[in-house]
Amino acid sequence: MNLKPILGQHHVSALTANAQKNYHFYTEILGLRLVKKTVNQDKPTMYHLFYADESGSPGTDLTFFEIKNAGRTYPGHSSISETALRVPNDRALFYWIDRFVQFGVKHDDITEYAGRKVVAFEDHEGQRLSLVSDENNRGVKGGEPWRKGPVSAEHAIIGLGPVALTVKSIKETAHILTKVLQYKESGKYTRVKGNSITTYYVFSTGEGGTGAEIHVEEQPDMQKERPGRGSVHHVAIRVENEEELGKWAEYLKQLRIGNSGIVERYYFKSIYFRDENRILFELATDGPGFLQDEHLDTLGEKLALPPYLEHKRAEIEANLTPLKTS
């Protein structure tokens, strides 16, 4: 089947126990824009918050489902274990070190992975994150910083970087990435983690670069991750349009890979499936995007519902704790 290459990261969706504190951290400290305040379409009693660049461009979205009673995360394999966020250059990392100190954000020193300067850090719920420099990026371009945000454009986060997976056996995930999703294994590097040195294998797609890589480590002796607040639910990767997504649906069917079929998400269309390591992947279309129901200047200010949930607005709003965004 003639499939176009995956374009790179689309979004990463994680869990939070408190939408208000989550909003504070990701907008007021990290300087991301809340581009869509909506609900989990499969369970509309919980918020689904989308943080991104100025206009919510594909490849810049970090999203959160609010589960108020979510317990702590116990890290392990079968997990999306770190999400990188791109900054313009090496110099910006020094700004972020100072900002993390100012706001009491737990962070490591500047180090280097796969030839790029990186700063690992955690949010207030233990979400495992890093900042990665785009200084030498020659691949997928970043987004446009939030104009009214608290971080200047020269330092601001401009999108998603590499997503790291921790798996019990790399063989199965490598098969899905290379033989099914048509990524290429493009290198490897080592990281010091605790008292050990871990090897990560790099898989890239499309134009490559920081916005189009998945990094995988094998940890057979770890326990399986017990997810909670601060864990990642799934990683979504970019498909150009609905026509192309239809081809992927047919391709997965031919390969007898169990999947959700095409799911309408209003802002994009998706297909979900898991690999044998229980990593949840989503194929998501670039469009139609977040501007079809809100103006660019007022993105994220009101509760947005897709048309097929609009008739339940009163019921949905009654079950949500008001989120203060101003």
UniProtKB/TrEMBL annotation:
Organism listed in the record: Bacillus mesophilum
One Pfam family in the UniProt entry: Glyoxalase
GO molecular function per UniProt: dioxygenase activity
This protein's name: Ring-cleaving dioxygenase
Taxonomic superkingdom: Bacteria
Gene3D superfamilies for this protein: 2,3-Dihydroxybiphenyl 1,2-Dioxygenase, domain 1
Keywords tagged on the record: Dioxygenase, Oxidoreductase
Methyltransferase recorded as keyword: no
Residues covered by the VOC domain: 8-134, 159-286
